[in-house]
């Protein structure tokens, strides 16, 4: 009997969590911020032109790690 109560409690907890997630999704929608758009463009700029993974020498050539440009 105790196991049945435990399973029932877990099901109820899962349903409450699902309801909260649905409520948040419906009333508090996700919007992409300017910072996220800028980060996506920054990431795309440092990607290799042919789509392959860049080695460390190529990465160092494309990023600025010193001075004002690194900020």
The gist of it:
The chain has 71 residues and is mostly helical. The chain contains 3 helices and no strands. The longest helix has 26 residues.
Descriptors for this entry?
elongated; 71 residues; 0% strand; 3 helices; mainly alpha
What does this 3D model show about the protein?
The chain is an all-alpha fold. 63% of the residues lie in helices and 0% in strands. It has 3 helices and no strands. The longest helix has 26 residues.
Give the secondary structure arrangement, pairings included.
Elements: H1 2-27, H2 34-45, H3 56-62
Helix tally? 3
Poorly predicted ranges (pLDDT <50, ≥5 residues)? none
The end-to-end distance, rounded to whole angstroms, is 62 Å
Mean pLDDT metric: 82
Q: Mind telling me the C-alpha Rg?
A: 24 Å
Helix and strand string, N-terminal first? Answer: HHH
As a percent range, the share of helical residues equals: 55-70%
Described by strand count, sense and barrel closure, the largest sheet is: none
Number of strands: 0
DSSP strand content: under 5%
Shape: elongated
Class based on secondary structure composition and strand pairing: mainly alpha
């Amino acid at each position: 009997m105790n196991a049945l109560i435990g399973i029932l409690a877990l099901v109820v907890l899962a349903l409450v969590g699902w309801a909260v997630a649905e409520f948040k999704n419906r009333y508090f929608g996700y919007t992409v911020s300017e910072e996220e758009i800028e980060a996506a463009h920054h990431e795309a700029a440092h990607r290799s032109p042919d789509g392959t993974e860049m080695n460390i020498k190529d990465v160092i050539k494309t990023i600025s790690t010193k001075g004002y440009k690194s900020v």
